[in-house]
Amino acid sequence: MSQLYYEDIATDDELEPREQLPTEDKAVEFFGRDNPTNPAFGDAEAGRRMGFGGALVPGLLKLSWITNYVGMWAGSEANLRSVRVAFRRPDIAGRPLTLAGRVVDKRQEDGVNVVELEVVTLADDQPTVRGNVQVEIPSRP
Amino acid sequence: MADVTESKITDEHRAMIGQRSDPIEVVPKTADAQRMRDLLGDTDPRWADGTGVAPPYILAMLEPRLPAELSPQVLSSGILTQTEWKFSQPIKLEEPLQAVTQLIDVRDRLGGRYGYSVLVMFQTSYLNSAGEEAAASLRTITQFDRPES
């Protein structure tokens, strides 16, 4: 895991895209097999009964992927301030998702370096989740 | 879908804004943190085994159900459309937090894929044993009427 420093980051920098393959099994495992969750997360037929094309990918799993994606990009000396996402359309298990991100602002607030990113999940090149992430990133020592 | 020209939000619905739930104790579990870390492939040393620190996405396991008594039912159906997590302090594993949920806004939304819809916004604050906010989550439910079939 590498570390980014504030001085090395520029607006419009892009994060390297990362692909994820959501599955029913991952959805169930994410919440824990003994914990009750929406049946449509682990059962394609339940998802179809709800009017979707199969098992639904939990929004909280996608939010966690985004959180981890930015965290791994920024490095372990960075501090996540906030992650805000809008769920634009449902994702169906078995269809690959691509996470992509871009730096949209960097600024100093009360002596703290703040970097803001836009992050999306893409399915078939269409955004399914759009997010904004704020992260505090240290200056180069 | 029928056009809606005036708000369906009543004074009674608006009067619910600001109401808070009773605190609910939630505990960030070590086993949950390990399982989620492994699933996501997270190698961040800050929340590795033995650190006692939870990864930020542990909030996914802590979020309490939205309390019915705080949820104005303006339209017949609802779906989670936005979530925000905010972090103020590291979350410690096995240290109980008090989760307090508040209805923070109810507003109309005209247009969009649901036609007339209503946005209902909740904030859950996670307070540590000193009463300080360690994290918060904001959830927006979009309420809409299902078209008659």
Task: Describe the protein's architecture and organization.
The complex is a heterodimer of chains A (about 140) and B (about 150). Chain A has helices spanning about 25-30, 40, 45-50, 60-75, and strands at about 15-20, 80-85, 95-110, 110-125, 125-135. With about 140 residues, chain A is α+β, with helices and mostly antiparallel strands. A five-stranded antiparallel sheet of chain A has the order 1-3-4-5-2, with helices on one face. The mean pLDDT of chain A is about 95. The longest helix of chain B is centred in the N-terminal third of the chain and has 11 residues, at about 30-40. The model of chain B has no long low-confidence stretch (mean pLDDT about 90). In chain B, strands 1-3-4-5-2 form a five-stranded antiparallel sheet, with no helix packed on it. Chain B is elongated, with a radius of gyration of 18 Å. The interface between A and B is medium-sized, with 27 and 27 residues.
Helix content of chain B: 10-25%
In percent terms, what proportion of residues of chain B is strand? 25-35%
User: N-to-C SSE series of chain B?
Assistant: HEHHEEEE
What is the H/E order of chain A? EHHHHEEEE
Tally of alpha and pi helices of chain B:
3
Question: What is the molecular shape of chain B?
Answer: elongated
Alpha-carbon distance between the two ends of chain A: 18 Å
Q: How many strands, which pairing sense, and closed or not: the largest β-sheet of chain B?
A: 5 strands, antiparallel
What is the averaged pLDDT score of chain A? Answer: 95
